[in-house]
């Protein structure tokens, strides 16, 4: 009898993807992921780096240990079931922290005098847009038709149905264009039939790439010096 695929497999794949992409670590490595430079309580302590490191540690802990959805059987997951709602809440916790992490990475990179435009293109832009609109109700267009889109999306956010790519290995076919999601944010509000939650493995790759790129910025001591000079905490201390 073939073993049923459960969410635990997805979570473990995401943890491995996150660690290897961001830090070059194996999922089982004893090393703790850390953001760039260790700091003490010196005059030029940069609070933003510690804050960012807290988000990184939270994501690592969550992917490693948030096991309460592990036994959900993915092939049998109904979009309007209690299991789907529980899995949605699991992803919500992860994505809210991910959104804060990306905002901190922007502040740090820009504070170091480098461009953060790479956070506003491609999949990273789409992920930030999804988090800000769907979970934070922050982003959104101002014309009437698109306000309707937000209202419909927020209704579906709180009441489902919730679709997950893990349950559709062959794709969603004709249904996918009618689901609001990371890669389909400009959907006609009259055709929305649910929300497509992005794969946590894809998210882990994207976050890992963003962290790795920000780390490279601070590998340059000159950039770190610029950040120390311009960080608001340092300006206030002068």
How does this structure look, described?
The chain is mainly alpha-helical. Helix content is 55%, strand content 3%. It contains 8 helices and 3 strands, in the order αααααβββααα. The chain has helices spanning 7-23, 47-65, 82-111, 122-135, 144-159, 200-218, 221-230, 232-237; strands spanning 162-163, 180-181, 195-196. A 3-stranded parallel β-sheet has the order 1-3-2. The longest helix is centred in the middle third of the chain and has 30 residues, at 82-111. The protein is globular and about 55 Å long.
List keywords for this structure.
238 residues, 55% helix
Give a short summary of the structure.
The chain has 238 residues and is mainly alpha-helical.
Q: Give the C-alpha Rg.
A: 19 Å
Strand order of the largest sheet: 1-3-2
Distance between the termini: 69 Å
Strand content: under 5%
**Discrete helix count:** 8
Topology:
Elements: H1 7-23, H2 47-65, H3 82-111, H4 122-135, H5 144-159, E1 162-163, E2 180-181, E3 195-196, H6 200-218, H7 221-230, H8 232-237
Parallel strand pairs: 1-3, 2-3
């Amino acid at each position: 009898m073939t073993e049923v695929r459960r969410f635990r497999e997805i979570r473990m794949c995401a943890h491995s993807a996150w660690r290897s992409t961001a830090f070059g670590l194996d999922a089982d490595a004893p090393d703790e992921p850390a953001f760039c430079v260790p700091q003490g309580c010196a005059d030029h302590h940069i609070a933003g780096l510690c804050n960012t490191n807290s988000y990184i540690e939270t994501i690592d802990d969550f992917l490693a240990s948030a096991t309460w959805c592990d036994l959900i059987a993915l092939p049998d997951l109904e979009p309007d079931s209690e299991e789907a709602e529980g899995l949605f809440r699991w992803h919500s916790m992860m994505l809210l922290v991910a959104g804060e992490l990306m905002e901190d990475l922007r502040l740090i990179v820009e504070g170091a005098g480098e461009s953060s435009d790479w956070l506003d293109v491609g999949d990273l832009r789409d992920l930030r847009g999804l988090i800000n609109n769907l979970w934070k109700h922050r982003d959104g267009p101002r014309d009437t038709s698109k306000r309707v889109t937000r209202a419909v999306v927020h209704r579906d956010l709180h009441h489902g149905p919730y679709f997950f790519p893990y349950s559709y290995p062959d794709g969603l076919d004709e249904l996918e264009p009618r689901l609001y999601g990371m890669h389909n944010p400009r959907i006609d509000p009259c055709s929305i039939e649910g929300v497509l939650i992005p794969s946590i493995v894809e998210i882990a790759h994207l976050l890992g790439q963003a962290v790795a790129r920000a780390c490279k910025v601070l590998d340059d001591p000159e950039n770190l010096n610029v950040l120390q000079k311009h960080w608001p905490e340092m300006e206030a201390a002068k």
